[in-house]
Structure formats: structure tokens, C-alpha cells
Design goal:
The chain is an alpha/beta fold. It folds into 2 domains: about 140 residues, Aspartate Aminotransferase, domain 1 (Alpha-Beta Complex); about 280 residues, Type I PLP-dependent aspartate aminotransferase-like (Major domain) (Aspartate Aminotransferase, domain 2, 3-Layer(aba) Sandwich). It is about 40% helix and about 15% strand. The protein is built from 17 helices and 15 strands. Strands 4-10-9-8-7-5-6 form a 7-stranded mixed sheet, with helices on both faces. Helix 4 packs antiparallel against helix 14. The longest helix is centred in the middle third of the chain and has 19 residues. The protein binds pyridoxal-5'-phosphate. Pyridoxal-5'-phosphate (PLP) binds next to helix 6. Belongs to the class-III pyridoxal-phosphate-dependent aminotransferase family. Its EC number is 2.6.1.96.
């Protein structure tokens, strides 16, 4: 691409360090500058329109032109643009949003703590787990287990929980005491002839072996996304969570459900926790919580954990954790409006109505010569690619990111994550738009061969 001096692209290259981007390549390739959006489409600075096949970052549930969210933000900005929640202060949207989330929670939850990003919500969960075990007088029970290929964010603790090598390498992560167990990717990790159920048993056995090796009295919690989306849309094998939770219960290990992507109808239920029968002690939320129109995240905690925090903070004199923008009233007002729209517009029913068509396309693309496995649930899917369908994954081939580039030429924005091309459109997508998205993806796969 030719980059004109003083263009937006040239200024971006000159001044902007991009998250999750090859910084060297960026100097020659430059950015795709997005300037507007309508429904599930976004438009770049040259006027080219794309279907947003990933809802931004698995997050813009209501697309890119939901004026009711903009109006909710404006209304709140005019009345109380900012106030914090430190030292017994509160704002109405923060109170109403906490109340609404507790009412919606898929399992009984007691309190909500607000942060700004999924990473912060997960970092807060880690700190509260440590605080909780100190409150209970078991300071040695602090280790945390997550899964290889899981994604929980990039801050020091949540980046440690993330089980992807590029999130650790040269950042000196993971932190000691944050451990990883087997990724439940059946096709990749099952032994020849092993059934899904037998593979799930082996995953649970490996978790148990790790807990026993470390000493159950040192292991505090297990973090899991219901579906591991960023790691390549890994859908749990049958009976997986049932068996994992039996191990956690046996050794008194807390379960944190990271619902940052799955939360709010993505998997065909309001929460992935319902889709896969989880019984978490804590739940983290972000992204679709506000349909991504403003940054806000939340951590829901059970009554047992809350009771321990009350006792510990009374002993210390304060609960010494919080962000300037915890429960920011404008972000909270936008989140409340998003939740109101999900309900009023019947977003969950819509997802249930269109998901079969989306998944039928996904299954059909599973027969494409480049696709070694097509996986998905609700409105999220991954197409695992390998040049001859059977070859073991070779990251140097970068076939999924190549396919994503071809998709862009066909007017679809998506991403190659590891070996998998991910699809996670805005929840408002219509059946006609699903057909258009999948036809364009098929053309991109044909180009990639
Ligand atoms: N948890 C999950 C499951 C995610 O997918 C992500 C981001 O993609 C995060 C946590 C981190 O969220 P954030 O990027 O808002 O910090």
C-alpha cells in the first residue's frame, strides 16, 4: 500500500503503537482506518464498506449505529458526567446496573464490582481470591489454574492467566503461582480412538493430577471461558465442565467463569454458564455488557466471598481496591441501556432464531478443502485451517491470518487466531446478512488455497 505523507495512515505509523500488531510490519502496511458504521457494516476512510465479522473484538453486539446508546450516554453526561464510587459514594446508573446484573445472574450472586476492561475484571478476581483466602486464614491457598490457549486479558495477572505464548514471551509472564492445564480441544489433543467423553475425563484427570502435584491446600481457583473464543473458538467437549467441576469441588477450588465474550446471548443463552452448566463462584463480564459503546466491565461475586471480604475489610479498615472509573456513571448508563435493548428487542430470541442458519453455513464450510474443522455455538464459530486438511498445525504457515486478509478484500473484517479464522458477528445480524457474510468468507477461503 502507498502511504501518502501526512495522511491518517502516515500519522498513525508515526505516532501510534498498536495492541496485538506486528509493529515492524505496521511501518510498511499501515492501518485500516475506520470512519463510520451502520448496523453490522463499517466503512473505512476510502469509503469501502465491510461486514464486521467479529463485532469489532467479539463485542459490538448491537452493531455500529445504535443511537439509543449514544442518547443514553448524552443524557447521563448532561446530568452527572462523572462520579466515583470510593468511600461510600455512588451514582444512580452504577446502583441500577449492579441491581440489574444480580437479577440476571445465571447462578445466585451477591455483589458486583465494576472495572473498565475484561483484563481488570479478571485481575480483580485474582486479588479477591487472594484476599478471600487470607480472610479465611489459609494464606497458602493462592495458586490459580487456567487453561492453555485460554484468554483472560493482558494485565500482569490476567496476562498470566492467558494461556497463549505470545501473551507471555518477553513480558516475563506468567507470574509464579499461575499454572496452566490442558486445552480441551478434542480434535487436536484427543488420542486415536478416544471419545469426547473419554477425552473430557482425561482433561479432568490432568487437572486433578496438577492439583495433587501442587498440593490441594495451595490451589485456590480455576478460571475458564465457557467457550475459549480468542484461543481459536474451542467448544468444550461433551461432559467436560461436569467433570472439571467435580474435581474443583473435591479440592475446594473456586471456579471463575470468564464470560467476557460469552456473556449476553453469544452462545444462545444469556450466559455461557447456562449453555455448559457451570456453577461459578465469580463471573467476569465486559465487551457486550455495554455493546462496547463505552468501556466497562464487571465482576460478580457469591455471598460467601462477599462475607469474607466484609470481615477482612473491617479488620484492615478498608477494602483497598478500586479504579477511578469503577462504575463510571456514563459507561454504566450505556450498559443499562444495552441490557434494556437486549430485553426489549428480544436479542436472545433473535440469536436463537438466526444461529441455526449461521451454524449451517459453518458446517458447510467444514467441507471446504482448506478447513480441517468447523466449530461453533450460537453466533460464534471458528474455521480451523490447514493447507491439506490433515496436516498438523504449523504456525509459520499463518494460513488463518492470510485468509483474514483475503476476507478483507471481499469486504469482511475478521481475524486469524492461531490456526483458526474466527467469526463472531454483531448479535443483530439478519439471515440475509449471515448469507452474505458466509459467501464472502467462502470466496476468501477459495483465494487462500
Ligand atoms: N477475557 C476474555 C474471555 C476475553 O476474550 C478478553 C478479551 O478479548 C478479555 C478477558 C480481556 O478483555 P479486555 O481486552 O477488555 O481487557
Amino acid at each position: 500500500m502507498t502511504i501518502r505523507p501526512n495522511s491518517l495512515e502516515a500519522r498513525d505509523i508515526a505516532y501510534h503503537l498498536h495492541p496485538y500488531t506486528n509493529a515492524a510490519k505496521h511501518q510498511t502496511e499501515g492501518p485500516l482506518v475506520l470512519t463510520g458504521g451502520e448496523g453490522v457494516y463499517v466503512t473505512d476512510a476510502s469509503g469501502q464498506r465491510y461486514i464486521e465479522g467479529l463485532a469489532g473484538l467479539f463485542s459490538a453486539a448491537l452493531g455500529f449505529s445504535e443511537h439509543r446508546l449514544a442518547e443514553a450516554a448524552y443524557r447521563q453526561m448532561k446530568t452527572m458526567p462523572f462520579y466515583h464510587a470510593f468511600g461510600h459514594k455512588a451514582t444512580e446508573p452504577g446502583i441500577a446496573l449492579a441491581e440489574r446484573l444480580i437479577a440476571m445472574a445465571p447462578v445466585p450472586m451477591s455483589k458486583v464490582f465494576f472495572a473498565n476492561s475484561g483484563s481488570e475484571a479478571n485481575d480483580t478476581a485474582v486479588k479477591l481470591i487472594w484476599y478471600y483466602n487470607n480472610a479465611l486464614g489459609r494464606p497458602q491457598k493462592k495458586k490459580i489454574i487456567s487453561r492453555l490457549r485460554g484468554y483472560h486479558g493482558v494485565t500482569v495477572a490476567s496476562g498470566s492467566l492467558t494461556g497463549l505464548p505470545y501473551a507471555h514471551r518477553d513480558f516475563d509472564l506468567p507470574l509464579p503461582g499461575i499454572l496452566h492445564t490442558l486445552c480441551p480441544h478434542y480434535r487436536r489433543h484427543a488420542e486415536p480412538g478416544e471419545s469426547e467423553e473419554a477425552f473430557a475425563t482425561r482433561c479432568a484427570d490432568e487437572l486433578e493430577a496438577l492439583i495433587l502435584r501442587e498440593g490441594p491446600e495451595t490451589v485456590a481457583a480455576f478460571f475458564a471461558e465457557p467457550v475459549m473464543v480468542s484461543g481459536g473458538v474451542v467448544v468444550p467437549p461433551k461432559t467436560y465442565f461436569e467433570k472439571i467441576q467435580a474435581v474443583l469441588k473435591k479440592y475446594d477450588v473456586l471456579l471463575v467463569a470468564d464470560e467476557v465474550i460469552c456473556g449476553f446471548a453469544r452462545t444462545g443463552n444469556m450466559f455461557g454458564t447456562e449453555t455448559y452448566g457451570l456453577k461459578p463462584d465469580m463471573i467476569t463480564l465486559a465487551k457486550q455488557l455495554s455493546a462496547s459503546y463505552l468501556p466497562i466491565s464487571a465482576l460478580m461475586i457469591s455471598e460467601t466471598i462477599y462475607a469474607a471480604i466484609v470481615a477482612e475489610s473491617e479488620k484492615i479498615g478498608t477494602f483497598g481496591h478500586g479504579y477511578t472509573y469503577s462504575g463510571h456513571p456514563v459507561a454504566a448508563a450505556v450498559a443499562l441501556e444495552a441490557l434494556r435493548i437486549y430485553e426489549e428487542d428480544g436479542i436472545l430470541d433473535h440469536v436463537r432464531a438466526v444461529a441455526p442458519r449461521f451454524q449451517a453455513h459453518v458446517a458447510r464450510l467444514g467441507n471446504h478443502p482448506l478447513v480441517s474443522e468447523a466449530r461453533g455455538v450460537g453466533l460464534v464459530a471458528g474455521l480451523e485451517l490447514s493447507p491439506d486438511k490433515t496436516t498438523a498445525f504449523d504456525p509459520s504457515l499463518l494460513v488463518a491470518s492470510q485468509a483474514a486478509r483475503f476476507a478483507q478484500n471481499h469486504g469482511v473484517i475478521t481475524r486469524g487466531m492461531n490456526d483458526t479464522l474466527s467469526l463472531c458477528p454483531p448479535l443483530i445480524i439478519s439471515e440475509a446478512e449471515i448469507d452474505e457474510l458466509m459467501q464472502r468468507i467462502e470466496r476468501a477461503l477459495d483465494d487462500t488455497r
